[in-house]
């Protein structure tokens, strides 16, 4: 039952985040040739329907948190605050990509807190949050190259508009290297916390090493093909 509540909270939070993003950005989306075919600017969904989706998903998320316990209900406002804030950041700062990274970095922390009510030994979750922050921020920079011209014309603050494409992609590469490195202490900490040590479950260790190596390779390929956003973002990054 607890895992079903966690799944409901995750789906509700993610849906609420996307609904907020689309509602807040609907006027910018209507101006951008790349996004004007989305549901709201194209008229396939009206604002009332989008608000209904937001209210329903946020209610499901908060309700799941409430059933999980009073502490979870109290902290449930933190992700909602982040989800509401980050779409506005592009109006103010070229560091807006960190807002998306922070939103996704909450996922391993929230998952850990929900699975471990005593909140003991959160080190692995913290390292996974570092990974998520660097990974998501890095790929959001790649994604933003699609809107470089639009951002410059309409005063949207992205790292690409601020630094230029090549320098922004260099920052993205640095972030993805940091993301790959963050997985190493996550693995070492996990093994240290495993009863009996690393050799107690050798097959799991080997599988974990293989997965982390695969992630590092995929991040390298994503950077190698960063100029081809369709390949890097939609076909390589999705596997990470």
List the main descriptive attributes of the protein structure presented here.
2 domains; globular; mainly alpha; single chain; 13 helices; 240 residues
Short account of what is shown:
With about 240 residues, the chain is mostly helical. It folds into 2 domains: about 80 residues, Orthogonal Bundle (Tetracycline Repressor, domain 2); about 150 residues, Four Helix Bundle (Hemerythrin (Met), subunit A) (Up-down Bundle).
How would you describe this structure to a colleague?
The protein is mostly helical and 240 residues long. It folds into two domains: 80 residues, UbiA prenyltransferase (Tetracycline Repressor, domain 2, Orthogonal Bundle); 151 residues, Four Helix Bundle (Hemerythrin (Met), subunit A) (Up-down Bundle), CATH 1.20.120. Helix 1 packs antiparallel against helix 4 and helix 8 runs antiparallel to helix 11.
């Amino acid at each position: 039952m607890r895992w079903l509540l966690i799944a409901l909270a995750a789906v509700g939070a993610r849906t609420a985040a996307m609904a907020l993003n689309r509602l807040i950005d609907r006027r910018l989306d209507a101006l951008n040739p790349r996004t004007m075919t989305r549901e709201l600017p194209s008229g396939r969904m009206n604002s009332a329907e989008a608000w209904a989706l937001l209210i329903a998903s946020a209610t499901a998320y908060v309700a799941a948190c409430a059933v999980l316990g009073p502490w979870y209900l109290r902290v449930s406002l933190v992700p909602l605050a982040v989800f509401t804030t980050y779409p506005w950041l592009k109006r103010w700062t070229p560091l807006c990509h960190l807002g998306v990274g922070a939103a996704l970095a909450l996922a391993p922390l929230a998952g850990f807190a929900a699975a471990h009510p005593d909140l003991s030994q959160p080190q692995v979750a913290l390292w996974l949050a570092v990974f998520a922050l660097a990974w998501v921020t890095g790929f959001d920079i790649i994604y933003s190259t699609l809107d470089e011209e639009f951002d410059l014309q309409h005063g949207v603050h992205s790292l690409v508009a601020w630094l230029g494409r090549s320098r922004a992609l260099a920052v993205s590469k640095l972030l993805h290297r940091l993301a790959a490195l963050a997985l190493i202490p996550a693995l070492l900490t996990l093994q240290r916390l495993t009863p009996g040590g690393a050799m107690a479950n050798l097959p799991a260790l080997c599988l974990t090493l293989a997965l982390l190596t695969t992630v590092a390779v995929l991040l390298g390929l994503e950077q190698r093909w960063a100029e081809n956003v369709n390949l890097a973002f939609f076909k390589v990054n999705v596997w990470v």
